[in-house]
Amino acid sequence: MRQAALVEPVPIGTKSSARRPTSVKLTDRDRDLLGLLLLARYLTASQVHRLAFRGKNLSLAYRRLLKLSRADGHPAFVGQRFFRTYDGNRIAVWAPTPYAISAALARSTPLPELPKHDVGSQFLEHLIQLNELLIALWSNGNRCPRAAHPCFRWIPSDRVRLVWGEWEMRNGRKQQRVIQPDAVLELPPRRRRFLLECEMGTQMISPRNGNAPGATLSKADRYHTFLTEISNLDGRKTHYQAQYADAFAPEVLFLAQSEKRASSINAALATWRTQRRPCAIRALTFDAAVIELRSLAGLPSLASAASRPPAELTEPPLMSDAEVRVVQRCIYDSMMAIKCARAVFRELGRNDLPQYPATYEQAWAALARLSSGSP
Question: In terms of Cα–Cα distance, which of 139, 163, 180, 167 is closest to 51?
C-alpha cells in the first residue's frame, strides 16, 4: 500500500519570502464536510473524497483538507493523526477541531460535541472501518450531504452510554454496568434504533473457557441484559425502556467484513438465544447493512455498494511509479559506484574501503512497497 503524502508539494520556483497564506474561506461544502467529520470523528482522505468530492480527483480532497488544517495564526478546522493497520501500513486520518463546530452549525443542527480525549491509536482502524457504513448511508451522488440527514441520526460511540445497575451475588452490592456501542443509528420515521458493533474479526465469537468480554457472545449477553431485564426504577420497564422513553424498537447489529464471519456469528447466536428471552440481535455484512438500511429509510440503492471493499485505507501516493523507479535506479547506480571504488582501493592496497550505506536494504524495501512495478 502506498504511503500518504504528508505535506503538499511546493511548486517549482516558490520563494521563501512568498506572502503568508490567509485564513481559509469556508464554502458550504466545507461546512457540510466539517459536520460529517463531527459525526464520524475520523475519516481518511479517500473517505472524505467519496463523501464530498465524488467524481473529482482524489488530490482535490487531500489539498482541501490540508488547507483546512493550516492554522498560521488562524483557526485550523481539522487536524491529522496517524495509525498503523494490523498489516503495519501507516494511515493518515483527519479529525475536526473545536473550531469546526461553529462552522458546521451554520449548515446542520444539532451536532454532537467533541470528546474531551482522542481515541487510542489501536481503535482508529476499528472506527475508520465502521465509518464505511456512515459514508454509504449519507452518500448523495456527487454532492456533499449535510450532516443533519432527514432520515437518519448517527450518534458516535463517545456520546452513548447504555447504563444499568446489576446486583453482584458474591458481595451483595449493586454494580453499575455500561455498554458503549461503536455507534447508534436512529431512523425516526421508522421509530427504530440500531446499536452498532463493528466486527474486525480479531475477537473470538464464543468465549470458551474463562471470561472473554471482547467475545461476540459476551457482548450479546450484555446487550440482552440491557434490552430484556427489568429496571428497578418502577419494576415495569426494561433497562432500555428506562433510558429511552421514545419507544423506538431496538436492534443490535454486528457488522462483519465477510459473509463467512456474519454466518458464523448468526449460527452462534442461534444456539445462544434458545435459552434466553427473545430480543433482536443479529449479524450482517457491511454491504448487506447498507442495502437494508437505505431501503428502510426509503433511499435509492447504491450500485457500487456490493463491489467496493468495506474500507479503502488508501491515500494519495507520495511518488508516482515512474519517480520511484528513478530513485531505485539512482540507489542502484550509487551502490555500483561504491562497489567499483572498493575494487580500486583493494588494487591499491588501501584498507579504508568505502562503506555501503547501512540503510540500503530498508530503503530499497520501502521503495519496492511504493512501486507497483519493478526497477
Answer: 139
The reply to whether 77 and 183 lie within a common domain is: no
Whether residue 4 is found in the same domain as residue 76: yes
60-100: pLDDT as tens digits? 999 999 999 986 677 899 999 988 877 778 889 999 999 99
pTM above 0.90, yes or no: no
Q: Which of 51-65, 119-133, 281-295, 348-362 has the lowest mean pLDDT?
A: 348-362
Q: Which contiguous run of DSSP H or E holds residue 139? A: none
Asked if residue 292 is part of any domain, the answer here is no
76 vs 286: CA distance, rounded Å: 33
What digits encode the pLDDT tens for the residues 341-359?
888 888 888 888 888 887 7
Q: What is the rounded distance in angstroms from the CA atom of residue 223 to the CA atom of residue 238?
A: 12
Q: Quick check: helix, strand or coil at residue 154?
A: strand
Indicate whether 290 belongs to any domain.
no
Question: Within a 13 Å sphere around the CA of 263, how many CA atoms are in the beta-carbon half?
Answer: 3
Q: Are residues 342 and 255 in the same domain?
A: no
**For strand 249-256 and strand 192-198, is the pairing parallel, antiparallel, or unpaired?**
parallel
Identify whether residues 166 and 221 lie together within a single domain: yes
How many domains does the chain fold into?
3
Give Cα 312 to chain centroid, integer Å.
10
Range of 106's domain? Answer: 1-148+299-318
* 80 strand-pairing partners: 94
